[in-house]
Amino acid sequence: MRLLVEDEIPEGETRGRPRQLTKRSIVQAAARIRPEEFSLSKLADVLGVSSQSLYHYFPSIKSIKDAIADEIAQKIPMIDTGLPWRAYVSEMILQYRSWLNQNDYPIARNAVYDGIAIFRIAGRRSEILLRRFDNFISVFLRDGFTLDQTVEIWITVQNFLRRSDLHRAEATGMASAWSDLQADIAESEEGQYSALEVLLETPCPEMNALYLQITNILIDGISARYGVD
Amino acid sequence: MRLLVEDEIPEGETRGRPRQLTKRSIVQAAARIRPEEFSLSKLADVLGVSSQSLYHYFPSIKSIKDAIADEIAQKIPMIDTGLPWRAYVSEMILQYRSWLNQNDYPIARNAVYDGIAIFRIAGRRSEILLRRFDNFISVFLRDGFTLDQTVEIWITVQNFLRRSDLHRAEATGMASAWSDLQADIAESEEGQYSALEVLLETPCPEMNALYLQITNILIDGISARYGVD
């Protein structure tokens, strides 16, 4: 088994020549296959190569997902440590969402959830994640938080970033959930869900505003909990 | 295809007689198989039946995961609506964690993530989820929040509950992440991650305290954001 950490062939050489496999060309092809159709033999078909040649680069589907998790982590924008902590957290969350909306890899969703850990990616030391954490600590210490508080806040923000569906929701993402809810209540006996009946007289929340609001709840909660403006 | 909503055979009759399949006995057997080994034929082996007989109950792995998501949702403790909103949210989160720690189903983890939606479970109308949401709205309206705010808070809390790794983390859950971090920094050049070096002189956070702290950040954030005590 051969493990590649970097591409061995310059990127330009892969264009139009799918048999010149690189780690990157495989990952990019993998990203275009729908998760429910994904297999190593399907991927080999798409690339026009044999399954055997893929195994040289990636011995398992998991190793492909890990590579995608790496790529995702490396491309997430780095935040300016000159910002005050509130703006720093806000940028961290909003830029992650914006980035993800343009660079989502359906096949890697669970891998990203599993693979990007709070301190490591896919169980391995990650310069990019250590750098992010180090920057984060320096911003919070500078702005008056203690070390213990800073760790708690890092875990809180990471937990929010890693698992949230909201990141991937489109601007109209609440509309279908809201109309499902209306249908469910229409099927219920009148008065069975009286608070919901009242609620449904208000308009469906708009997803971008909702996302911003949740981000602000998080930031205000940090401020209130630790008594730091 | 036959769809069973309730068990058709009393629970007692299944003991020691694995060929007397019920939806529940299948779900319980499925919960004991490790996710990486899971398949319908493996499940049939464990139950001592043919794959064909399983298809009468569950036509796909997805349908088994959905059934587990249903079962999980139904067993999550219902919270007393007499509590003030802060205690209500806190109980909702802490009881969910406590329940999950005793009733986790490894095979269904992603199904639970995918399947328990903010208003529905596995895409279907769910009395239990409508009841929870209706209760939640009534508590928050009673305590002075507006309808719009209540929806935002419901999405915030659901988002936290659905995706958090922290729910499943054991009391010592941070220890291995912390020692990985120490190893990663030991491998780095001195001064490369100077804030992390300072941080690692503090003890590893304790998971239960950390979880409580994040819950409190959420609650304080709601209070601060909406100006409601």
Roughly what is the average pLDDT of chain A, rounded to an integer? 81
Order of helices and strands of chain A: HHHHHHHHHHH
Structural class of chain A: mainly alpha
CATH architecture of the largest domain in chain A: Orthogonal Bundle
Separate helix tally of chain A: 11
Q: Are there runs of chain A of 5+ residues with pLDDT below 50, and where?
A: 1-18
Oligomer: homodimer
Q: Assign a percent range to the helix content of chain A.
A: 55-70%
How would you describe the shape of chain A? Answer: flat
Largest interface: chains, residues each = A-B, 59 and 59 residues
> How many separate structural domains of chain A?
2
Beta-strand content estimate of chain A: under 5%
CATH class of the largest domain in chain A: Mainly Alpha
Q: What is the CA–CA distance across the termini of chain A?
A: 54 Å
Provide the CATH topology of the largest domain in chain A.
Answer: Tetracycline Repressor, domain 2
Notes on the protein architecture:
2 copies of one chain form a homodimer. Chain A has 229 residues and is an all-alpha fold. Chain A folds into 2 domains: 11-59, Arc Repressor Mutant, subunit A (Orthogonal Bundle), CATH 1.10.10; 77-170 and 206-226, Tetracycline Repressor, domain 2 (Orthogonal Bundle). In chain A, 60% of the residues lie in helices and 0% in strands. Chain A contains 11 helices and no strands. Chain A has helices spanning 23-31, 40-47, 51-57, 61-75, 85-102, 109-115, 127-142, 147-163, 173-186, 194-199, 207-226. In chain A, helix 7 packs across helix 8 (147-163). Chain A is flat, with a radius of gyration of 22 Å. The N and C termini of chain A lie far apart (54 Å). Mean pLDDT of chain A is 81; it is low at 1-18. At the A-B interface, helix 7, helix 8, helix 9, helix 10 and helix 11 of A face helix 7, helix 8, helix 9, helix 10 and helix 11 of B.
